[in-house]
Amino acid sequence: MSFYNQVRKITTHVLFEMKLRNEKIAMLTAYDYSMARILDAAGIDIILVGDSASNVMAGYGTTLPITLNEMIYHASSVVRAVSRALVVVDLPFGTYQGNSKEALSSAIRIMKETGAHAVKMEGGSEIRESVERILSAGIPVMGHLGLTPQSIHKFGTYVVRAREESEAMKLRQDAKILEEAGCFALVMEKIPAQLAGEVTKSIRIPTIGIGAGNMVDGQVLVLHDMLGITQEFSPRFLRRYHNLFAEIQGAVQNYIADVRSTDFPNQSEMY
Ligand code: KIV
Question: Dihedral through CA 185, CA 187, CA 193, CA 197, nearest 10?
Fold first, then answer.
């Protein structure tokens, strides 16, 4: 068993140490109290209150519509459930790009109103000023490069990023910029495994991959995808650990049948 399973509270310092000792970091998303309790009890290191809540909780087609108030609602529910994991919250689209003052006030609202431990932001050199301003207020920042879903309309598709050398070069430079700016960790999404491995070796902060191979310092998946609650989304990188859609559907069908047949409630279920 890993020494880090015994750690009572995951901090950014613990994550840094895990990288030094080549101990892999496990991260998942959560958006509500009940799921976050299960993840924390299972020993997850980082819970990301991702803006993927826009897709899996609210049913939108992209991460763009979710608002800061909605992220605060999800994050405060998660924080109430957690005693060990580090809780990181996505700054939603439109609350930090292009205006570092607004970025800081968005990050402050998240920290003050949710009790979370850090924020995550998508982008490299373009958001450097915002990252630095947030960090200067003592708020830890996680970076996010590669496929950055808030820019989906610029990319046009969800295909693997940075296959071309020019994009790979920019990603290497952005990773360095985010490290120098003071980010405590970096998510890399849907990029070639070799490139992710190279970046991981070139920076001191931990890298967390999603569709970025096995040469990174940790992995993240969207909870609803790995549990098989979502069905339509099945990229190559996704390992499903359960088929919860079918499990829940079966349980609900059994309940409906029991209600219709008056089998439920029985004598022992009545007062
Ligand atoms: O919002 C999210 O769930 C994310 C992960 C995919 C890293 O950003």
Answer: -10
